[in-house]
Design a protein that fits this description.
This protein is α+β, with helices and mostly antiparallel strands and 118 residues long. Helix content is 31%, strand content 31%. It has three helices and four strands, in the order E-H-E-H-H-E-E. Strands 1-2-4-3 form a four-stranded mixed sheet. The chain is globular.
């Protein structure tokens, strides 16, 4: 095992280094989630797989509005932006979503993706 400490927005790996990435419940706390996802895209091979298990804004309208109203409290308490639209962030980072599901009131996202082909 090779364990390294660092920031998600600037990964200390060469381009196309990995076959698979698994990110779990972390995107909400990245300072710049799009930059961090672009770094994930950069270090994974074009034919690699990206697995994201994250939480974000609920697809249930009333709950999503609640998250929007209370996001600043969540950031102050734990650094969590719980109302992010994860699929939008993933696409904006240039990552191709192959399959996506939501669970638990539409809050938890499971995404299987691959780096978008250049």
């Amino acid at each position: 095992m090779d364990l390294r400490e660092g920031g998600a927005e600037s990964l200390d790996f060469t381009n196309n280094s990995f076959d698979t990435v698994i990110s779990s419940l972390s995107t909400c706390s990245f300072f710049n989630p799009i930059t961090a996802l672009q770094e994930i895209r950069r270090v994974y091979k074009v034919d690699g797989t990206i697995l994201l298990i994250e939480h974000g804004r609920s697809s249930w309208n009333w709950l999503g509005k609640y998250q929007d109203r209370h996001v600043h409290e969540q950031i102050e308490q734990g650094g969590c932006r719980w109302n992010q639209e994860l699929q939008n962030l993933t696409r904006e980072a240039g990552i191709n979503i192959l399959h996506a599901d939501r669970a638990l009131f539409g809050i938890f996202h499971s995404i299987m993706a691959s780096p978008a082909k250049a």
